[in-house]
Amino acid sequence: METSVSTPSFPRLNEPAPAFEAPTTVGSKKLIDYAGKWLVLFSHPADFTPVCTTEFIGFAKKHAAFQEMNTELLGLSIESHYSHIAWIRNIKEKFGVEIPFPIIADLKMDVARAYGMIHPGAADTSAVRATFIIDPQGIMKAMVYYPMCNGRSIDEIFRLVNALQTSDSNKVATPEGWQPGDKVIVPPPATTETAEARVNEDYECTDWYFCKKVV
User: Fold this and answer.
1) How many C-beta atoms lie closer than 10 Å to residue 2's C-beta?
2) Is the full-model pTM beyond 0.70?
3) Residues ≥6 apart with Cβ < 8 Å to 113
4) What kind of fold does domain 21-152 have according to CATH?
5) Domains 21-152 and 171-215 agree in fold
6) Is 52 marked active-site?
7) pLDDT in tens, 74-123
8) CATH class of this structure's domain 171-215
9) Domain boundaries, the chain
């Protein structure tokens, strides 16, 4: 007899992000509260742990820069808001850093399960280091997972948000390691006629399929 294996539900790129309503350190928050803004929703395994503390300090220091890009931050772990509040106060006392964004208290793991933050191979009761970038229309644009033992690069997440916004507003792609001010990649032509014309257009072309421009 074959044994059926249930496949966990995960959000998918370019589809609506799972809706949620959850208690946070600043009161209840819903996904719809962030309509019109970009949202970086990120989970961490546990409060009062060294790697997570470094990540939260990193996000806090970059918070104002994210907001300048119309982007809000929202943390999450499977702990109570009392634990979150105590940890926030501890970070301020011991490291001199204020955490300016809310943290979801996901004790029932509703949000964690909806977003695929629980990976049994890592832990059954803790969320892995998952990061989700959601656009102003509530569409999932990027997902990044890190293991328990390695902290994220906040600069890379910031760079990715910037790249996504540039791609959305200019209908272009960005190359490896792209930074603001770098040239972007023009989508390849889809017909032989436009491919022939492409090399004569005002782009920096290596070949018909590989052209860059400044935005």
Assistant:
1) 4
2) yes
3) 9
4) Glutaredoxin (3.40.30)
5) no
6) yes
7) 999 888 989 999 999 999 999 999 999 999 999 888 998 899 887 665 45
8) alpha beta
9) 21-152, 171-215
